Amino acid sequence: MRLPLPLKLDHVNVWVLEDGDGLMVIDTGVGDERTRALLAETRSALPRRPLTRILVTHHHPDHCGLADRLIEEHGAELLMSTLAHEAGLVLQRREKGTDARSTAARLAGHGLSPEARKSLVENEAQFETLKPGLTPDFTPLAEGDTVSAGGYSWRVIFGQGHAPDHVCLYCADPPGAERGAGASGGVGDGAGGASVGDGAAGGGAARGAGAAAARPGILISGDMVLPHISTHVGSPAAWLPGNPVALFQDSVRRLAELPEDTLVLPSHGEPFVGLRERVAELELHHAERCRTIAGVLGEPRSAAELLQVVFQRDLDPLQLMLAMNEAVAHLEYMTERGELERLAGDDGITRYVRRDDS
Ligand SMILES: [Zn+2]
Q1: Is residue 3 helix, strand or coil?
Q2: Of 8, 19, 179, 258, which sees the most CB atoms within 10 A?
Q3: Helix H or strand E encompassing 221
Q4: What is the pLDDT of residues 225-249, one digit of tens each?
């Protein structure tokens, strides 16, 4: 089911699976009243079953904002990775305003202007409504774990770079091939929601008529692979080491090793088939971005100066923060690869310049 978001990216997909006598949801949408009402309304259209489990792909508020209220209402079990849970609680417990102020202070060192920093802090309210809604109790998911629901057996695959230990779920052989034989247009008896059915019909058609024995696998990709937008990479969790751009690329390369006819169910946008092609596009996107950056760093520039050169369009405060984080992540990635040199300015601003010996 598709839930609205109070952002430029205006929706998030939530997947519903049969779970014994109950239902399992994968992600929840944000924690506002509109989402809660919509989710309740949509659920009442489904067979009357209790909500038994909530699996959260990662800690971003559009994926888990409503989890605590659903747990309180239904007594459902929360499943997520330990790092995602930890990251979510950090965000959730942070005092009002501290997030924007610390982000503004960090980005000052990358040349973000005082006006832009002020507007970031003033627009804190834009982010305040967006908080994770997690409970202290949860069932940890680890890489390689199997989650069974409605006859489906899902393997947990961790992804990095967008959020720590982001959970993707892969089902290699969806049930229903023997029972199915044209009886159902959906993914199988276990999955609900119109978009699941639509996507599966496309996936089935792509396989052609000879695919009676096995159905294509299904990947619930969360935010790791999206059909139209490139996943945001680079917002730091200060307590996590690593290079988000490199981590993200490694993760999606691993996902691209799944069978080519895998049906991908993303958190934003429509289900699609063509995982390898999409991952190749994402890699090209990052490579092009690096080339563009290298092209304008013949002279030293800060991340903020780089954004002025590379993205001329107007960014709202949230977009500006994300763009700054992405720019810094790419600059650091390229510095680690020896393509750029990092210069600490006397004015406290970090600048980067191309190393022409690389
Ligand atoms: Zn996300």
Answers
A1: strand
A2: 19
A3: strand 218-222
A4: 999 888 998 876 654 667 899 999 9
